Amino acid sequence: MKAIEGMSVIVTGGSSGIGAGTALYFANRGARVTICGRDLAKLESVAAEVGSYCQAVQADVTIDADRRRLVDAALDFGGARLDVLVSNAGDMYRGAIEELDEKRLLDVFHSNVVSGMMLTGLSVPHLEKTHGAIVFIGSMHTQRAFPGSAPYAATKGAIEALTRVLAAELGRKKIRVNCVRPGAVFTDGKPRTGHATDTAAMERLHSLAPEHALGRIGTPEEIAEAIAHLACAEWTTGSIVSVDGGLGLGVTHA
Ligand SMILES: NC(=O)c1ccc[n+]([C@@H]2O[C@H](COP(=O)([O-])OP(=O)(O)OC[C@H]3O[C@@H](n4cnc5c(N)ncnc54)[C@H](OP(=O)(O)O)[C@@H]3O)[C@@H](O)[C@H]2O)c1
Q: Does the beta carbon of 150 sit less than 6 angstroms from any atom of ligand 1?
């Protein structure tokens, strides 16, 4: 296993939820972590909480110039190296198939899939030097079919396909590509679930608890543990690891 200490890590969407938990996990173990998001206030507050091993870069992953600035900033902060890209930033779009808005559908594919692909391309020359790793964040939506979630589930299906193809493509450069597939995790909620209010989003998340074999939803730290494992496990690539409290089992309460 590689050591986290001394790594240079990018976490997209590090200003909230799973991304913020991941930044904290790596920084607490001695990595130099660069987080990005669009909302500067949220970003700076997480960076201040994580401490001096974390830098905040206001960047929208759907914008090419922002992605380039993010990678440059991570190289500066991380001692001219990049070891890990955690491609976590993502949005939610739900809706009945007859009512989907094409622009919103393209936008969710842009933020959840295309941006991570483009950022991976920019990171490869640097990850090649460190024999580094990419960790994508998928979702249990590829295993459990929630009506109305086709747009989001389709983006996460694409992430799983990407993980396998890029692992094959980048193996010769000694870059590993893996994916963590979380169950329901307690996070900011509203933007992710597409519900009208924070309360409605939280109610929806908590209503999923009995669907998990372990009877509860997860925490960002529990996802960060798996991300860190995949960042460090030197003979693991192309893996899609469910960290879901048993949601993917399809537990049936007869
Ligand atoms: N929580 C769950 O139950 C769960 C389950 C399965 C998978 N996931 C996946 O885990 C990842 C994180 O989810 P979360 O629940 O932690 O969500 P969250 O709390 O809503 O955080 C999303 C993060 O992504 C950032 N972001 C979104 N679009 C961005 C963009 N275009 N450019 C830069 N940053 C952007 C947000 O910051 P700004 O809005 O300020 O840009 C925020 O920091 C997502 O990929 C999600 O699909 C979550």
A: no
